[in-house]
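Tutorial handout. Part one gives the primary structure; part two gives the three-dimensional structure as tokens.
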Amino acid sequence: MAHLVLKIANLIAFFFLLGVNVYSVLAPVKDAPLAHITYISPAYFTFYVWFLIHLLLTGFVIYQFCISEEEIIRAINWHFVGVALLNTLWLALWDDDTLFLAWIVVLILACQVTYIYREVHFGFEYDNVFTWKYFFIHLPFTLYHAWIVVVVVLTTFAALTPEKTYYEVTRDDTTTSVPDSPNIIVQLVVIIGLLFLEMTSVTYIEYKRDYAGGADSVIHWSALILAIIATIYLFKPWVVEIFGGGKKERQTADINTIYQYYHLILDW
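Part two.
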């Protein structure tokens, strides 16, 4: 009976979270992904990963009623309900421009998601990844955990660094918005943030041997090689400055490399 109550609570919490996220996207007042753009913010389409996460979580809240292994639900316990409520609170604070409180909430949220991920990933064995159990129990929280790390970084930058600004350039009667180049401190902080995300992805591949790292050797080595290339590419401005190109090239490369690096990571 207790497990049935927990499963129903998971179902209600999920649809509450889903409704809030759908409203935040469709609301005419503000589009959440476009709010608080900083110099580390990814392209808009990146936020569509929420669609995949919600799709997998839909499978989770339905599949939980079909499995006989009650220990999995017992391991997740009420933490999923907590995750749904915290995620909703974070989104409300984000939309309300209360960024420092949103930052605190997202750190707590990340701890909750990490707990579920640890229980699901390390507490249960998955001999075959092509099973309903893997797709609807393990995969939703693996993807959720990976994405919440990105959300923590984005919220940290939104709370502690200036927003991205633009200036207008007119050429041939066409006006375009061009981003201002941030100061050196912001550039360094962005690089640290990118390196943190890079090292996190390498940890997934090498240490935790999660889906991208453990499912197939081709995927494993391709992801690792691309991560190494992207990290090396980050130091292009200094190489250009030392071996040629002059100050003008270095200044152009400083900010461009950050964007090119991020796009390279997103593309693969």
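Part three, for discussion. The chain has eleven helices and two strands. The chain has a mean pLDDT of 76.
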